[in-house]
From TrEMBL:
Protein name per UniProt: Phosphatase PAP2 family protein
Alphabetical UniProt keywords: Membrane, Transmembrane, Transmembrane helix
Transmembrane segments annotated in the record for this chain: 12-32, 52-74, 86-103, 131-149, 156-175, 181-198, 210-242, 262-284
Pfam family for this entry, one: PAP2_3
Residues annotated as domain Inositolphosphotransferase Aur1/Ipt1: 67-192
SUPFAM superfamilies linked to this entry: (Phosphotyrosine protein) phosphatases II, Acid phosphatase/Vanadium-dependent haloperoxidase
PANTHER family reported for this sequence: OS01G0859400 PROTEIN (PTHR47216:SF4), PTHR47216
Length: 397
């Protein structure tokens, strides 16, 4: 999977997530600093002599172009994941620093003599304010863009040109009077941290990371900016989900006989309701498709069924529920029912896989039809069914 090519859908999804995260967090931090009337800065004494070079606005604004095109220039899914997660991490860390310790650029920009430069600086003034200083996201992004693109540039000349331009883009933050030297150094350290922290060749989605990102967004925008108790609840709930995925704790929802205790609903309602809504959307989208796939006479797979759909199952059918995040349909609980909690989007370990396969074998050998299902019927049940059938093939050979 690490070397699977990235599709347009993958690229758009990662770009949209990054654009949304940057847009909401960055501009929220800017707005808060402006409302607070922040005047402190991180300028060093000698920086008063740094010249203003108005033409540097061109490389400075080119960062926005890199933000868009880099997602479509990397080749594999792993390279796309690296770029996306590193940018997300840089954005979230910087946004937390911006809202906790806001700074302002310390002196006004001189008059612009060039008409086209004046137009570009006016545009910059409309979309950005002189806050969000330390660390410089511009500099951090440049380092991350360079890391993502350098391996795709075969020509030595183009490699030098790419490096020189991104270096110029980073340095332009000083000569356009957007950042001070400490901001630039802070941005470089932030970029290096993201490069080291997010590692290559991960073979499955880093689910804990994404829940942490969303929890952070709710905290920055909803808690710090809007002072919302609901946002605090959402952030804490998503943070607990992130922690469960980080620990690979498939039992964190304490699902018993297909249902959750009341206190689990209290802690994880956003997570559970989100999956319930997703399941309803899948049911509607695939309403004209068969809901059950009969792999063999005794092994059927699919998604969680509605009560009406469950009537298609044999009376003596054995239900194996792999969905950790959806309560089981009451009709299915009336069958011989067994729940094996598996985390979504995460490959199950060998011990639990063997336990499930053994139970499947026992039920099928006893003459029962097994309905093996996860939440949406896309991954977990298909994976276990393939493992079961490959075992059968190997035993015959």
């Amino acid at each position: 999977m690490s070397y699977s090519p990235a599709t347009v859908q993958h690229r758009l999804r990662h770009w949209l997530l990054n654009a949304l995260t940057f847009g909401l967090c960055y501009f929220t931090a800017n707005m808060l600093a402006q409302e607070q009337g922040v005047v402190r800065h991180a300028a060093l004494a000698f920086e008063a002599g740094v010249p203003f070079l108005q033409w540097m606005i061109v490389p400075y604004l080119s960062s926005g172009l890199f933000f868009c095109v880099t997602f479509f220039l990397v080749s594999s899914q792993d390279q796309l994941r690296l770029l996306s997660q590193r940018l997300l991490l840089a954005t979230i860390i910087a946004a937390f620093i911006f809202v906790l310790y806001p700074l302002q650029f310390s002196w006004p920009r001189p008059a612009i003599s060039s008409a086209w430069c004046a137009y570009l600086y006016d545009f910059l003034a409309q979309v950005d304010k002189p806050y969000n200083q330390l660390p410089s996201l511009h500099v951090a992004y440049c380092l991350l863009f360079w890391s993502a693109l350098r391996q795709h540039v075969r020509s030595v000349t183009l490699h030098i040109a790419l490096t020189a331009w991104l270096l110029l883009t980073a340095v332009s933050t000083l000569f356009t009077y957007q950042h001070h030297l400490l901001d630039v150094l802070g941005g470089g350290l932030l970029g290096l941290f993201c490069l080291v922290f997010i590692t290559p060749k991960r073979t499955e989605p880093h689910v804990a990371f994404y829940y942490l990102i969303f929890a952070s967004m709710f905290f920055i925008i909803g808690v710090i900016a809007a002072r919302s108790w609901l946002a605090l609840y959402l952030a804490c709930s998503l943070l607990l989900v992130s922690l469960a995925y980080y620990r690979n704790d498939a039992h964190f929802l304490h699902k018993n006989q297909g249902q959750y205790p009341w206190w689990i609903w209290l802690l994880y309602a956003p997570y559970l309701l989100g999956y319930q809504l997703t399941w309803l959307a899948v049911v509607w989208r695939e309403r004209h498709k068969p809901v059950i796939i009969k792999l063999t006479e005794q092994l059927w797979v699919g998604r969680r069924l509605s009560s009406r759909e469950a009537k298609q199952l044999p009376q003596d059918c054995s239900i194996i529920d792999l969905a950790n995040e959806l309560s089981e349909t009451p009709t299915l609980r009336k069958h011989a029912y067994k729940h094996f909690p598996l985390l979504d989007l995460t490959k199950p370990g060998k011990p639990v896989s063997n336990e499930i396969l053994l139970y499947m074998r026992q039920e099928i050998d006893s003459g029962k039809t097994v309905y093996l299902h996860c939440a949406m019927g896309y991954s977990r049940c298909i994976l276990l069914a393939k493992l079961y059938m490959s075992q059968g093939t190997n035993s015959k050979s």
